[in-house]
Each structure stands twice: as C-alpha cells, then as structure tokens.
C-alpha cells in the first residue's frame, strides 16, 4: 500500500467516525458567528438613547435594583458604553441559573429580565461546546473530535494536491464541474470548497483546540511567550486583616476606570459577596468583542491594585505577543477580530466544514455500492465461465 493510499484510508475512517460531530459543531458555529448581530434585532432593549448632562448610576445602585427582582446575589455589573443599557449578571451552579437584568443606567428602570438558561443561543452554545451532553462527557468528545478534524484537513490537502498543474488538473482541482453527473459534482463540492476554506478552517479548528485541550493551549502559550508557563485563571484574595477603608469600593473602582475611558468603551466590575473576595474589573474598548480589554484586580478593603500575572491581567497595550494572542483567541475563533468581514469568513468556512462530512459520506457510499456491484458481477462472470467449460453428462 502506497503512502497516499494509507493517508486515504486514514482520512476515510477518521471522517466516518467524526462526521456527525463535525456537522453539529460546524453548523452551530455558523449560527454563533452572528450571535451579536442577531441579538441586536431580537433584543432591542440592549440599546437606548443616551441622555446628555445626566450622570450614570453607580454599580451599587444598579445591583440593588436588580437584586429586588432576582432573589440572588449579583455577580457583576456591565456598562456597555454610550447608547447601551447596563447589565447586572446573576449566575451559579447546582442548580444552574444565569440571569441578565437589563437596566437603564440613568434612571435605574428595569428594561428586561433575561433568563439565559432558556435562551436559544445558550442552547446552540451548549451544542457547540458539549454536543448537548453533560459537560464532563461532551467537552472532551468535542475537543478530541476537533483534533481529528484538524488531521482530516491536513490529510485532505495531501489527497487533493495535484501531481502537476497542467490545465486538466487545474480544472479538476480548482473548479466544480457543474455540468457533470451528480456524483462528480458531489466529489468536486467535497474537494474544491474544502481547499478554498482550508486556511480559515484550520484557524477555526486550532483556536477551538485552545479552548478544549489544556495541553495544547499550554503548549501554544509556551511557544508564543518565549517559554512562559500558563497559569490557571484564579482571582487572588483580599486582605481581611485590615479594616475596610471605603463604604462602596465597587463604585470607586467603576468611577476610577470610567474617568479614563472613551465614551464608546464599556466597563465591568464584579460584585464581591465575601470580605475575602477581590474586585475584578475591566475596560472593554470594543464592546461585543473580548480581546481589547484592560484587566484590573483590586483589594476590596484598601483598593490596592493586585497584579495577577498571566494573559488576563493588566492593560491590553502592555501585554506581550503571547498574552495578546490568548486574549484574541475567542474573537479569532468567531471571526470578530476582523469585524463583519471576519464573521462572514468564519460563517462561510463553518458552512463548508459542515458540508464536508455529508459530501464525504456520499462519496464513500457511492464507491461502496460500486464495489459491491463489481464484486457481484465478478462472481456471476466467474460462475458463467466455469459453467461454459463444465462437461455435459449424458444420462442414458
């Protein structure tokens, strides 16, 4: 067996074993690429007219208003910039719950209480991450399925690669022969779009692996940071041995960060429940994306800044290449790093990825039936040949 045939067998069986997983993950990825754009239509309460010469209410006021509606402790308050409503978030486990309360940040009026656990995009996200299975089962299945898909992309390129680039091979490799029989059209639809979407598909797969496989994420971080070890994201604790110096520390953190940011930027501040918890906050210079953020952590008692280290600490401008790349990972994965053109690229690549298991299965099934017919024809021909030479027995 030649190397190319061996690669072909590997491509075939890996493709058949992971086809349904790839189809689900890629299809849900198509939808998630335009999550924010769809929500802009479905959730008009995210937006509001900004009021000139009116001051925004501090986080403690918005937290108090929201906690009257949701009888649970708030986790954080998000100000999404000029012309956007504020969001107070509530989430927890056992049992799981996740609420977002949209509030007018000027008047404190509640605009909408959104149960994110029942939201359509939460359902799609669960399928994309876990195949709607329990997290401890679905997460590794999706992660290693994505690794298999990465191998499929590379082996597919090897199988696609033409021996020479004469006109006939160029037409076969780079064009779909629409006027051919449907089996040939299906074959071309598996190869040609797959080649054109290869680079973007590889980027989607590799950024997905950073979410799914810790050893892969740590390896990428080590390489891109020049040998730094990735540390687990864990907030430090506040110094509870000293007396609290401020009455509303979250308000002071929000005020401090708001004074330095442009009007279009957003601010998030956490709402610590215990005296030992620190205040985690960030400034988001490009709301609806997640990479261009300045991260801060403050001691709750003294408001002393605490340096956490790792990719999610400190201003974005001061982060090293590897730290910036890790922060960019989600936005690269969704295409949001390039705004709308990037999302369109991610959508198209995901759509092609979703089609590959379908067209690949049809190719395999067609060849299987063809081989079965050939085998039957060979058996019939062999029997007929033997019958032609069989001696005639005369019964007297």
From TrEMBL:
This is PepSY domain-containing protein. The chain crosses the membrane at residues 12-34, 141-162, 193-213, 344-366. PANTHER family: BLL7967 PROTEIN (PTHR34219:SF3), IRON-REGULATED INNER MEMBRANE PROTEIN-RELATED (PTHR34219). The keyword Membrane applies. Keywords: Membrane, Transmembrane, Transmembrane helix. InterPro entries: PepSY-ass_TM.
């Amino acid at each position: 067996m030649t190397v190319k045939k061996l690669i072909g067998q590997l491509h075939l069986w890996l493709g058949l074993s992971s086809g349904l997983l790839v189809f689900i993950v890629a299809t849900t990825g198509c939808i998630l690429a335009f999550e924010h754009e769809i929500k802009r239509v479905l959730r008009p309460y995210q937006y509001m007219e900004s009021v000139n010469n009116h001051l925004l209410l501090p986080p403690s006021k918005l937290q108090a208003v929201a906690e009257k509606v949701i009888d649970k402790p708030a986790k954080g308050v998000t100000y999404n910039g000029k012309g956007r409503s504020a969001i107070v978030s509530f989430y927890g486990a056992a049992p799981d719950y996740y609420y977002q309360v949209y509030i007018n940040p000027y008047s404190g009026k509640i605009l909408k209480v959104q149960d994110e656990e029942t939201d359509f995009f939460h359902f799609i996200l669960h399928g994309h991450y876990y195949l709607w299975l329990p997290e401890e089962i679905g997460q590794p299945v999706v992660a290693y399925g994505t690794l298999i898909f990465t191998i499929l992309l590379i082996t597919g390129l090897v199988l696609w690669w033409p021996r020479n680039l004469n006109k006939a091979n160029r037409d076969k490799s780079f064009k779909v022969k629409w006027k051919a029989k449907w089996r040939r059209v299906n074959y071309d639809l598996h190869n040609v779009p797959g080649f054109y979407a290869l680079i973007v598909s590889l980027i989607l797969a590799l950024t997905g692996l950073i979410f799914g496989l810790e050893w892969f994420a740590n390896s990428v971080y080590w390489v891109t940071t020049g040998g730094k070890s990735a540390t687990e994201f864990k907030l430090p604790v506040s110094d509870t041995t000293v007396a609290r110096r401020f009455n509303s520390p979250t308000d002071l953190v929000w005020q401090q960060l708001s004074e330095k940011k442009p009007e279009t930027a957003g601010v998030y501040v956490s709402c610590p429940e215990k005296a030992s918890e620190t205040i985690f906050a960030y400034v988001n210079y490009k709301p609806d994306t997640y990479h261009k953020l300045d991260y801060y952590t403050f001691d709750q008692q003294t408001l002393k800044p605490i340096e956490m280290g790792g990719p999610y600490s400190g201003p974005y401008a001061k982060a090293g290449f590897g730290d910036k790349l890790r922060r960019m990972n989600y936005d690269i994965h969704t295409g949001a790093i390039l705004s709308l053109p990037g999302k369109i690229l991610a959508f198209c690549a995901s759509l092609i990825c979703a089609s590959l298991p379908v067209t690949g299965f049809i190719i395999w099934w067609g060849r299987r039936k063809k081989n079965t017919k050939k085998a039957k024809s060979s058996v019939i021909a062999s029997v007929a040949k033997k019958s032609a030479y069989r001696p005639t027995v005369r019964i007297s």
